[in-house]
Structure formats: structure tokens, C-alpha cells
Specification:
3 strands, single chain, 10% strand, mainly alpha
Length: 196
């Protein structure tokens, strides 16, 4: 179950589109830092696909595509970007669901880039014992796109509020809790545990 009661679902989405005067706040500076940290040049066939899909997304969402959203969306893999386009096209331009989808793809992409120390174990079919390894990795929240698409608006609003809140002050524990909550929604366990 996704926990955390936001004061208002609208608040998190509107906070993503605050004016430049709010950009000087520590929270917005933190988010700007995350955006800058994921920027890399996209070239070749991938760049061509991103430009094409972004054109279609921008034509559909119009003014809801802020500069920060666009910076992050341009870093998304074309397959996921195409999924975002399909999900956005199922919404009406003035619906809260469109705002939630935009915020989900924005926040989840940034959260996926925050690397944490994780312990991963596998059990071999040829052995009775598991193999454990510790490495640094981000949690790929994109795998939850199909799941959140089926959430009612209230639950989807809660997820994006929690994701935005975590993004403002990311810690291993808060990112882990969001991942665990979404995993519980899927009904499977990925044998991924977090270490210090």
C-alpha cells in the first residue's frame, strides 16, 4: 500500500511548475541539481527517436511541458518515452491524470538515477546456497509504469506526491520504501535488499 497522505494532490504537481522566483528555494535547487546530474548528450538513432517522440508529446500536452520536464524527458530511453506518449494520449488535456503522468515520468526518472548501495542475491538451480554481491545502482522505477497506469487518480496522485517528496530530500530509506510499496502492488519480490 502506498503510504503518506499529501496535503493535496494538486500541490505536488503545481510545485513542479512553480515560477522562477521559487527556483531559488533549497528544494528547487536540489531538484535542479538532480536534473543537471542526469544530463548527457543523446546522439545517433536514439536522438532522432527522442526528438520525434518529444515533438508528439509536446503537441499533446502543450504548455504543461515545462522546461524542467523537457530536460528530463529528453534523457528517457525512447522505448519508455514512447510508453509515456501512449499513456499521455489516453488522458484529456485538462485532466489531473495528465499532470500526474508528467510528474511520474519526471520524478521516477530522476529517482532512478540516484545510486544506492544494494545487496543482491541469487540462488543457483545447481547449488543450495545463494550468491551475494553488493554494488551501487539506481532503482529502475520505469518497470512500474504499467502498474501505475491502472491506479485510480487518488492513488496515482499519492504516488507522485511521495515521489516528489523523496526527490526533494532523497535518502536510501525513503527511496527503498517507495520501491517496496510499488513492489507490494505488483505482488512479487525481487530479492533486492538495501545495505548501508
Amino acid at each position: 500500500m502506498i503510504k503518506g497522505n499529501p496535503p493535496s494532490g494538486d500541490q505536488s504537481v503545481s510545485s513542479a511548475r512553480q515560477t522562477s522566483s521559487a527556483n531559488s528555494s533549497p528544494i528547487q535547487n536540489g531538484i535542479e541539481h538532480h536534473i543537471q546530474s542526469i544530463q548527457h548528450e543523446v546522439t545517433g538513432e536514439r536522438a532522432k527517436k527522442v526528438v520525434e517522440i518529444m515533438g508528439l508529446i509536446k503537441a499533446h500536452v502543450k504548455e504543461k511541458m515545462t522546461a524542467n520536464y523537457e530536460k528530463v524527458f529528453r534523457q528517457i530511453h525512447p522505448d519508455r518515452l514512447n510508453r509515456a506518449l501512449k499513456m499521455l494520449k489516453t488522458t484529456k488535456k485538462k485532466s489531473k491524470r495528465m499532470d500526474y503522468y508528467l510528474e511520474w515520468f519526471f520524478s521516477s526518472t530522476l529517482l532512478s538515477k540516484i545510486e544506492l548501495k544494494v545487496e543482491h542475491w541469487q540462488v543457483s538451480s545447481q547449488a543450495n546456497q545463494g550468491i551475494t554481491g553488493v554494488y551501487t545502482a539506481g532503482i529502475d522505477f520505469s518497470r512500474y509504469d504499467q502498474i501505475i497506469r491502472d491506479f485510480p487518480d487518488a492513488k496515482l496522485g499519492k504516488v507522485v506526491t511521495v515521489a516528489r517528496r523523496i526527490l526533494q530530500t532523497p535518502t536510501k530509506d525513503t527511496i527503498q520504501k517507495l520501491g517496496q510499496s510499488l513492489i507490494s502492488e505488483t505482488g512479487f519480490d525481487e530479492h533486492l535488499y538495501f545495505t548501508d
